[in-house]
Amino acid sequence: MDETQGILEAFYLLLFLLPIIILILRQIRTSSSNGKSLPPGPTGWPILGNILQVGTQAHSSTAQMAQIHGPLISLKLGSQLLIIGSTAEVAAEILKANDRVLSGRHVIQGVLVRGNDVNHFSLIFTDCNDRWKYLRATCRAGLFSAQALESHASLRERKVSEMVEFLNKRKGMVVELKDVVFVTIFNSLSHLFYSKDVLSLEDEEVGSDIKRPYLKLLELGLTPNIGDFYPMLARFDLQGLNKKGAKLADQLYDALRARIQQRRDGESVHEPNKQDFLDLLLANGFSDEEINSLFSVSSVLLVSVHCDSINERDICELPYLQALAKETMRLHPPAPFLVPRRALETCQVMNYTVPKGAQVLVNIWAIGRDSTTWEDPLIFNPDRFLKSNVDFKGNNFHLLPFGAGRRICPGLPLAVRQVPLVLASLLHYFDWSLPNNEDPMLLDTSETLTITLRKKQPLLLVPK
Ligand code: HEM
């Protein structure tokens, strides 16, 4: 009897250890077959690879690794290969010389919560196929062409005037600036799409059916998912994250779908001869799923940016403001690794092999702080842009807050109007101080990497 029990225990132990043994064997096999030509990188732990060395602030930890191992490094996150470029020269190799072959997207488990069909409906995650081209062209026509931008200028100005009006009523009080800017920009986008506000500056409860699941989903996306490190374990959803995510995504999409349905039912929200983006999408046969996906993606990046109202034409006349926006994005890019790419085929970057399927990142946070390019890189000095032609349209690989190549941010023309307009209005209409008249020189400007890079301590300010 004892003997049988011993055999059973040994059997269970073996069963428990089997996945671990398989992972170790796979890692040994991968490193011995690819190791020689992969970019260099720090030695990792068995099974975990470099997960612990990368930590939670990957933009700074991998920038330090690049100082030691060179501008192109390779890492193992669990069983997954990750390649990171950290200089302008490598960025040009990735985003220009190898733009096509490195144009796939690396899709994390958090995105797959509603099934694997991201290819069909998501502009940001689909590969660069005909559907992707069509989605980009539709967005350009309806939102980002010169004509579309011009026709929406007064809308953006109106939303900013509402923000100024709201802050006027709070003079002398402490406000959390990111909340105010979040609502202003979210509503500008929702007006472009639906001709309606979704959120309210005055009442937090308005639009909470959208805001709550949306913010919780972003939070959930930050929780490390075992399935991302070991795809063979993904279908077990060991932490239950996919299940939670699917529930939240259903809530968010139901709330958005209800608004689309109102339009399908003939709701009229704008002048009869006018068309908003939702009308355009419906007229072109887009499904609710496709429409929702376009709307939720676009809000993520914009919301992370640190009246006889000012209008957008004034903004173009303000070179120092433009320099201020560039300097802010140089030091604090909202997407420090751009949006992760994936190698569609094996290719060579800087004479190293990037195998098919590898995840490829460009660390633009490190590029913005590279002392071989920027004088006194850690000093915030907008003047450096006053006499230079450097722009962020993807031609200059030293400054890439919107990426470059075929996957460059399609929202760039909108963002470069909206962000300076909000900033200029905040500066023009108010004098600002810190709560309790604290010394601004002592302000904590450190940042933290969440889905985007943001200020670690929220900016609390008093408008006067
Ligand atoms: C300050 C604001 C913004 C920043 C810093 C930003 C930055 C970026 C970056 C770095 C990428 C990845 C580029 C690459 O892979 O090379 C991207 C992609 C994207 N952005 Fe933006 N973005 C902003 C605003 C917007 C806005 C306003 C929209 C839409 C309304 C938008 C929609 C998109 C979409 C759909 C993609 C995916 C494009 C593709 O994969 O083909 N972004 N953005």
How would you describe this structure to a colleague?
The protein has 464 residues and is of the alpha+beta class. It has one domain: Cytochrome P450 (Cytochrome p450, Orthogonal Bundle), CATH 1.10.630.10. It is 48% helix and 9% strand. The chain contains 18 helices and twelve strands. It has helices at residues 2-34, 51-54, 58-69, 88-97, 118-121, 130-144, 146-151, 153-168, 177-194, 208-222, 226-229, 241-264, 277-283, 288-302, 312-316, 319-331, 364-367, 412-429; strands at residues 72-77, 80-85, 104-105, 175-176, 341-342, 347-349, 352-354, 359-362, 432-433, 447-449, 453-455, 460-463. The strands form four sheets. Strands 1-2-8-5-3 form a five-stranded mixed β-sheet. A hairpin with a 2-residue loop joins strand 6 and strand 7. 34% of the residues are buried. The mean pLDDT is 87. It binds protoporphyrin IX containing FE. GO terms for molecular function: heme binding; iron ion binding; monooxygenase activity; oxidoreductase activity, acting on paired donors, with incorporation or reduction of molecular oxygen. Its cofactor is heme. Belongs to the cytochrome P450 family. Pfam families: p450. The chain crosses the membrane at residues 6-25.
